[in-house]
Amino acid sequence: MSDKQVAVVTGGAGFIGSHVVDLLLDRGYEVRVIDNLVGGREINLAHHAGNSKLHFLKSDIRALETGASIFKGAHRVFHFAGIGDIVPSIEQPLEYMSVNGQGTVQVLECAREAGVSKFVYAASSSCYGLADTPTREDHPIRPKYPYALSKYHGEQAALHWHDVYGLPVNSVRIFNAYGTRSRTSGAYGAVFGVFLRQKIAGKPFTVVGDGTQSRDFLYVTDVAAAFVAACETNLTGRIWNLGAGNPQPVNKLVSLLGGEVVYIPKRPGEPDVTYADITAITRDLDWRPRVSFEEGVGTILEQIDYWREAPLWDPQSIAQASKVWFQYMTKADGNG
C-alpha cells in the first residue's frame, strides 16, 4: 500500500470506525477521522496519540462543507457516522432522518467534490425487518422503525450518487457486530453493553424472551477487514450482507459470560433469528470470518473494565425505557 493513500473515516472514533482506523493505519494509509465525540469516544483512538498519519476533525457530519480541507486529496471514504439506537429513533424520528439521511448526503457531496476513488457506506441489516433466513441481499426491504428507515435512506442516497454522479460506491449491510470498544453510554440497546455492565455489577443478565432467539454475531475486527476489502476492490455499485453466517443463541452468550439470568418480555417486531447469507461477500471480496464466537467473547471478557461506566440496566428500567417500543411496535405488527 502506497504511503500516499489517504482515507477519511466518518465516525472513526466509534465502535467499528475505530477498528477500521487501526487496520488502515496498519496498511500504510494516512487516516483522517471525523467524529463528534459524543459519549467520550476519544478513548478509542488514544493508542494512536502522536501518530503523524492520523488527523482528527471534531464535527457533526451535517456541518461539513463541500471542499472541506479534510477531504482534499482523499482517495477513500468510509462512512460510519450516524445515530444508531432503535428505541430513541421512535421518539426522535426527525433527528434520525436528519443525521442518517441528510448527514449522509452531506458526506457524499464532500466525497464527490474531492473526487475520491471509493466510498463505502455502513448500512444496516435492519432494513430487512422480519426477514426470511438466511437473508440474501435481494430480500424485500421492510424497515420496522425510524432507525432502520433512516439507514436505508442513507444507503439509497449513496447508491444514487453512484448512479447519477458516478461516485464509486459500495454498501455493506452489517448484521450483529460485537467486540471491544462497543458503546458504553446512551440509551438501552445492544445486548453486549447491557450484559457486560450487569456482569461487572454482579447483577443478573436481562434476557429478552426465553433466550432461544439467535443473532448473527460477527467480531469487530472481521467487520473492519470486510470494509477495507469493500473499499479496495475494483467492484462498485454493490451491496453486501455482512455477518458470520452462523447465528448464536442469546442463551449461549450468557453461558459464555457466566452469571445469573432474569427473563423479560419479548419485544414485538424483533426477529427470532438474524442470519446473513454471506455468499456474495465471500465470493466477491475473498473475505471470510476469522474470529470464532467463543474467541471473540473471551477477548471482550479480558477487557471488561471498558464497560465499567456504562449504564446499569435492570428489568424495571428496561421496561420504562422500552415503553414507546411496545406502544408503537405492537401497532405496527397489527396486534394492537
What number of structural domains do the residues give?
2
In the CATH hierarchy, what is the architecture of the largest domain at level 2? 3-Layer(aba) Sandwich
Compute the CA-based radius of gyration: 19 Å
Classify the fold: give the CATH topology of the largest domain.
Rossmann fold
Helix percentage: 25-40%
**Which strand order does the major sheet show?**
3-2-1-4-5-6-11
The largest sheet is: 7 strands, parallel
CATH homologous superfamily of the largest domain?
A: NAD(P)-binding Rossmann-like Domain
**Mean pLDDT across every amino acid position:** 94
CATH class of the largest domain: Alpha Beta
Distance from first to last alpha carbon:
56 Å
Strand content is 15-25%
Classify the secondary structure makeup into a structural class: alpha/beta
Query: Count of DSSP helices?
Result: 11
Shape field: globular
Write the element-wise H/E pattern from the N-terminal end onward. EHEEEHHEHEEHEEEHEEHEHHHH
Beta strand count: 13
The residue ranges in which pLDDT falls below 50 over 5 or more consecutive positions are none
